[in-house]
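Write out the bound-state structure for 1-O-alpha-D-glucopyranosyl-D-fructose.
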Amino acid sequence: MEKHWWQEAVVYQVYPRSFQDTNDDGIGDLQGVLQHLDYIKRLGADVIWLNPIYSSPNDDNGYDIADYRKIMTDFGTMNDFNHLLEEAHKKGLKIMMDLVVNHTSDEHHWFMESRKNKTNKFRDYYFWRDPKDGKEPNNWKSNFSGPAWNYDAKTGQYYMHLFSKKQPDLNWDNSIVREEVYDLMKFWLDKGVDGFRMDVINLISKKPGLPDDPNVAKSEVEDAMEWVANGPKVHDYLKEMNKKVLSKYNVITVGETPSATPDDAIKYTGFNRHELEMVFQFEHMGLDWSKNGLGKWSTNKVALTDLKKVMSRWQTELNGKAWNSLYWNNHDQPRIVSRFGNDSKKYRVLSAKMLGLLLHFMQGTPYIYQGEEIGMTNVHFDNIHEYKDLETLNAYKEIVEDKKKVSPSEMMEYIHHSSRDNARTPMQWNDGKNAGFSEGNPWIKVNPAYPEINVASALEDTNSIYYFYQKMNELRHKYDVIVYGNYELLDPDDEKVFAYKRNLRNESILVIANFTDQEVSRTYQPYNDFDCKLVLDNYDDDQKLILRPYEAKVYYYER
Ligand code: TEU
Ligand code: CA
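---
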């Protein structure tokens, strides 16, 4: 197997809107990212993934792009971007952009032209269809509630939008659209950016004829994801993109692929496939979803044995064939310490380290989402009006107000557990005004936990989660077995402890994570038979057979 730089890299994700505001308008900006390059470098990351920074009316915080070649005015100017890229490169940090090309904004000039009449050359850039029996052309649902079609009276047709109405889907079956996308990718790559995270890239090939989804009744609020994902031509298009663009640059690519299985992932990222380098899979993120047809809206806890099954399947099935991404968090997911860990005063730090350790010693490229490295927690706003995320607001309207499926207070509990805004509250830099995020009025409220959970206090405390992540990144850069070793799950039925080994040639590591707030005792080979070196532990003394609450550790040994 050939080795690639992006296999040895650690990625730090920045959500610019919530990272650092430098001009007091309450919105994070590119200057703010620039200010913290040293902070990111010091953590040991190699790559920064920036969520979309392009010109956008911000219906979906930049995932609705009006101009792919302009910077969002809230975030700054192209000069700011050029400067950021240059400074990052000087420090040895790469920059990865978000590529959102399944859809545009309805304010993109392609769409504004497209909707004018049925015959203009942009009409076929999107999916326009006649009404069927006076209604939507098919039964597909939008990811953000309601039908995936919007009626446009001007021409008497519907256009498709798998996300919000302001995010019309691009028609990738039109080769001119594909060429437009390749051109804009080259625009950024020629500037020197180091790769792309590709938004819902497995949705770009729609089923011919756009047939009804037979499963849509399964869940009343869910989208048509499985039915629209991994369509018939998606691999042709990605191969074409690779040949025409990506193969000419030495870049990192990660495709966001909801509902992809390991088999799908091998097709997207197989070492001999010439499509993408890795994907973001969603199976582990779906384990706590509702069993009552409410999709992501639930307060379910994840069973450790289920988590083991999913994580291990991805580890073993891709081994030697394709490459994993490793993530617990991003701008769409609740905070991991609140979700899979324990965010109480007593156990927050321990359990955040335990979760980090469990993930970072697996095979794949780890992604750290801003604030994860200081153990930021979910936010519990009391009032629905304090939420800004359109997915959350639309779901509240549909589930509580329109369909009256659950009470307002029940829905608020689900929102506290699952809303995307859990990840989007401002970065907590210090215990000062607005957590040091902004001198102005933040676009979304700061999490009230900030006096205790913030960067300044993490940097002062040698025992902090920050330094633990720093140590993990150091170890990954030092031991080949962490990057390339194969994976072997131990005790799949153990409901309390997640333990696995990684092996490369004569080297191994043993990783042990107690997922509970209780003390348990366990023995593993090679405690007895081998000379193990403890390389990391979230407690400061090693008691081998006894695992204290949320204790997690890694041993290294040679066979
Ligand atoms: O997310 C796609 C996606 O799968 C999400 O809609 C996901 O189902 C949801 O966020 C889970 O709560 C990508 C982006 O990451 C997201 O921020 C965008 O809103 C979306 O695409 C549309 O571009
Ligand atoms: Ca600003």
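---
Residues 21-23, 25, 27, 29 surround calcium ion (ligand 2) (CB under 6 Å).
Residues 486-558 form a domain with the Immunoglobulin-like fold (CATH 2.60.40.1180).
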